[in-house]
Specification:
36% of the residues lie in helices and 15% in strands. The chain is an alpha/beta fold. The chain has two domains: 242 residues, Type I PLP-dependent aspartate aminotransferase-like (Major domain) (Aspartate Aminotransferase, domain 2); 129 residues, Aspartate Aminotransferase, domain 1. The strands form two sheets. It has a seven-stranded mixed sheet, sandwiched between helices. The structure holds pyridoxal-5'-phosphate (PLP).
Length: 388
């Protein structure tokens, strides 16, 4: 179980791995889907005689192990780990990596909860951080300090969909003796595989595209390297914020359809971004699939397609943006993203409220869409009506 990526797979194609990697038919029953092993402890054959390698479900559980092997295969890493939430995964990674006095470079556009973890929690433990524009590797290099242990990147970023060059940042991290962490939640491993581009570890909120159905909170880490993967696994068990069996099962279930869902998310988002660009009430559209987007060429190089998230600024300021959120009907007003249903939200008052007054503050006239997989004509009609 230590080197999960060395398992034999009949295919290296993503769609096939998503369904089969690490998820063989159940040894006991032949069940084609790994069952929900809703169990805390395991009978030992004599003291220390573990039958299937399982001892206690915080340390390992068969349903979670199946998901963890699958995650490692999909990200091309050596070790996958599943957590109770994306933030639990981040916390485990950061407390494995950092001691008081260490420093992290964080992005100027990021998930609000990630910023809050640095600014309100880890800072009290003596961890310092500097905000940099990660879409400019020079800005990251300038922010590095002697005790920088990690460079944190989200690409595409949340909510402004900026693109950062993973290969260039991996070089900066290596020169700094720091680990490059990529939060791959927005892209999913179907669209982007940061470890292959030089990142050391990938973070996911599996709550989003991986789960895909707005019915579970979960997180994941995938390490490129076996030794660091083992260190993370040690801390996962020592700290205890693991994914429960049912949640792990839901995430595995979601991942099996990730490829087909992402294809539709991307196709629908491209149509919606094009409509918004031409709309007289829209001041600016942020979508890496648009040729005028600053990160378009880079995204075309390091991603398979441009994702399902679209943000835009509404003419008329905050009130106009709030009115669009209120008037949308098919786009449900709500936080989160990555589910089959379309969501609309106002980042500065909702997901990014914790970044108010910080360098990560977002514009008040910004609206963020998580474009779902409904019929695109219905989504276009709903947005046109909300903007009217
Ligand atoms: C949601 C999210 C997180 C946090 O994950 P939770 O599962 O909500 O704890 C981290 N990063 C990004 C990009 C997210 O969208």
């Amino acid at each position: 179980m230590t080197d999960q990526h060395n398992e034999h797979h009949p295919s290296e194609h993503f769609e096939t791995l998503a369904i089969h990697a690490g998820q063989p038919a159940d040894a006991g029953t032949g069940a084609v889907v790994t069952p929900i092993y809703q169990v805390s402890t395991y009978k030992q054959d004599g003291v220390g005689g573990l039958r299937g390698g399982y001892e206690y479900s915080r340390s390992a559980n068969p349903t979670r192990s199946a998901l963890e092997r699958n995650l490692a295969a999909l990200e091309g890493g050596r070790r996958g780990l599943a957590f109770a939430s994306g933030l639990a995964a981040e916390d485990c990674l950061l407390r494995t990596l950092l001691v008081p006095g260490d420093h992290v470079v964080i992005p100027n556009d990021a998930y609000g909860g990630t910023f809050r973890l640095f600014a309100r929690v880890l800072e009290r433990w003596g961890v310092t951080w500097t905000v940099a524009d990660t879409s400019d590797p020079g800005s990251v290099r300038d922010a590095v300090q002697p005790r920088t242990k990690a460079i944190w990147v989200e690409t595409p970023s949340n909510p402004l969909l900026a693109i950062s060059d993973i290969t260039a940042l991996a070089e900066v991290a290596q020169q700094a003796g720091a680990k490059l962490v990529v939060d791959n939640t927005f892209a999913s491993p179907y669209l982007q595989q940061p470890l292959a581009l030089g990142a050391d570890v990938v973070v996911h909120s599996t709550t989003k595209y991986m789960g895909g159905h707005s019915d579970v909170i979960g997180g994941a880490l995938v390490a490129a390297d076996t030794a660091f993967g083992e260190e993370l696994a040690y801390h996962q068990n020592a700290m205890g914020a693991v994914a429960g069996p049912f949640d792990a099962w839901l995430v595995s279930r979601g991942i099996k359809t990730l490829a087909v869902r992402m294809d539709r998310h991307c196709a629908n988002a491209e149509r919606i971004a094009a409509m918004l660009v031409a709309h007289p009430k829209v001041a600016e559209v942020y979508y890496p699939g648009l040729p005028e987007h600053a990160g378009h060429e880079l995204a075309a190089k390091q991603m398979k397609a441009f994702g399902g998230m679209v943000s835009f600024r509404v003419k008329g300021g905050e009130d106009a943006a709030l009115a669009v959120c209120d008037r949308a009907r098919l786009f449900t007003l709500g936080e989160s993203l990555g589910g089959v249903e379309s969501l609309i939200e106002h980042p500065s008052r909702m997901t990014h409220a914790s970044a108010a007054g910080s360098p990560l503050e977002v514009p008040a006239d910004l609206v963020r869409l998580s474009v779902g997989i409904e019929a695109v004509d219905d989504l276009l009609t709903d947005l046109r009506e909300a903007l009217a």
